[in-house]
Specification:
about 425 residues; alpha/beta; about 25% helix
């Protein structure tokens, strides 16, 4: 299939047949297409049609994605996305200022969404197997020989695409029923200081000296780019988002009182909301329709990390297609990880555990490598047992024991951030 822009076709826009249709062109959608091109067999890659939204509220603003990179290359390296920055040393500051962390066996790596998109755009443009459609999908449904995606382009003209397999990567507008739902919501400033204030070799994952909510957690997140430039972000785990003024006040308090930066300029900002829920995300929506990314459960409920899991999920889907198997996206996390996450969310939401104390204790009492594997959803069972025994055992055990007795509440809408920019799933 030759590459063409269907949105430029005369009215009506004709149907397009492809082996695979990918709905959405954010991190999950573009990553899947990239892995499909990488996993091509002797006969070449499958034909792929990508439906991407027109400029406007449905298109994701620029953001940053972070992940722990394995030695020899990480989730973003294989897709040609340039790395904006990476850090070998990781730091967590406890509520009293105690410095925790140290040198990491894996680098913490930042990829900017604009760089990632440009890299993938170039690959898609160079592949004759890829067709791109700019428009809004209004229906995704099974058909007699696969599935059908229909919608309207930016000019209001209808389009229809049929594919043997369809992968819907659009973020969910409504969350699944859950026993506990919190939101990870944040606003970050890209700052430039007048004097050297940062160590470019150290990523500060959590500064827990911020004022804490009654239930949940707050912290600052500092990613230095140079001695005078960094992303400084205020983050909360809580039931509801803040107003723009409240985020700005929290950032001012942190940069003036908790960690004074002196004179500085804000050169950019990003803001977002990530669902933290023990709801069950369905990976399959029909015989030939699947969900990937956050909609397919790729966001870790207890941390919000997504990007690395999206890469692993996409690689497995591409391998299954290349081998002629049904490309059901793999389960993103082990059931035991999800059970532990559900217990933590419940403990935070009820106030049974002090969130700042919990995460400080996590880094203080466990090996850094084990903690990082746990946060990334790749820890071994023996590591998880050790981590569990060094956490607040009674509140966590009580929260875990009561989960089967709790009803799953009706779905809730995913709030949009008040600001104009979003970022990550830290991933």
């Amino acid at each position: 299939m030759n590459r063409r822009d269907v949105s430029a076709a005369p009215v009506p826009v004709p149907a397009v047949d492809a082996d695979v249709v990918v709905v959405g062109a954010g991190a999950a959608g573009l990553s899947l297409v990239g892995h499909l091109l990488d996993a091509a067999g002797p006969s070449g890659p499958p034909s792929v049609a990508v439906v991407e939204p027109p400029p406007g509220p449905d298109r994701s603003p620029e953001r940053t994605w972070c992940f722990w990179e394995e030695e020899g290359g990480g989730p973003g390296a294989g897709l040609g996305a340039p790395v904006a920055a990476s850090w070998r040393r990781l730091l967590v500051r406890g509520p009293g200022g105690e410095a925790l962390g140290g040198d990491s066996p894996r680098r913490y790596t930042m990829v900017r969404s604009a760089d990632f998109t440009r890299a993938l755009d170039a690959r898609l443009a160079a592949s004759p197997a890829v067709t791109r459609v700019t428009g809004t999908a209004t229906a995704v449904e099974d058909g007699p020989r696969g599935a059908r995606v229909s919608g309207t382009d930016a000019g209001g003209r209808p389009f229809a695409l049929t594919g043997r397999w369809v992968f819907d990567s659009r973020p969910p507008r409504v969350l699944p029923p859950a026993r506990t739902t919190l939101l990870q919501h944040f606003r970050g400033w890209f700052v430039r200081t007048r004097e050297d204030r940062f160590d470019p070799g150290t990523a500060e994952l959590m500064d827990l000296r911020t004022p804490q909510p009654r239930c949940g957690l707050s912290f600052a997140y500092v990613l230095p780019l140079t001695p005078r430039e960094a992303l400084v972000e205020y983050t909360e785990f809580s039931p509801a988002v803040l107003t723009d003024g409240e985020y700005e006040a929290a950032l001012r308090h942190y940069t003036e009182h908790v960690r004074p930066l002196g004179a500085f300029t804000v050169t950019g900002a990003e803001q977002g909301v990530i669902p933290m829920t023990d709801g069950r995300f369905a990976r399959r929506a029909g015989r030939s329709v699947f969900r990937v990314g956050t909609a397919g459960g790729a966001t870790r409920p207890s941390t919000g990390y997504t990007f690395a899991t999206v890469q692993r999920q996409s690689a497995r889907v591409a391998a299954a297609l290349a081998a002629g198997r049904t490309p059901l996206p793999p389960r993103p996390y082990a059931r035991r990880h999800l059970a532990m996450d559900a217990a933590l969310l419940r403990a935070l939401a009820t106030g049974r555990v002090d969130g700042a104390d919990f995460f400080a204790r996590l880094f203080r009492r466990n090996r850094l490598e084990s903690v990082l594997r746990f946060l990334d959803g790749r820890s071994a069972f023996r590591e998880e047992v050790a981590i569990g025994l060094r956490s607040p055992v009674w509140p966590m055990a009580r929260s875990l024991a009561e989960l089967p007795l709790l009803p799953r509440r009706p779905p809730a809408a995913v709030p949009r951030p008040h600001g104009s920019l979003q970022r990550k799933a830290p991933t």
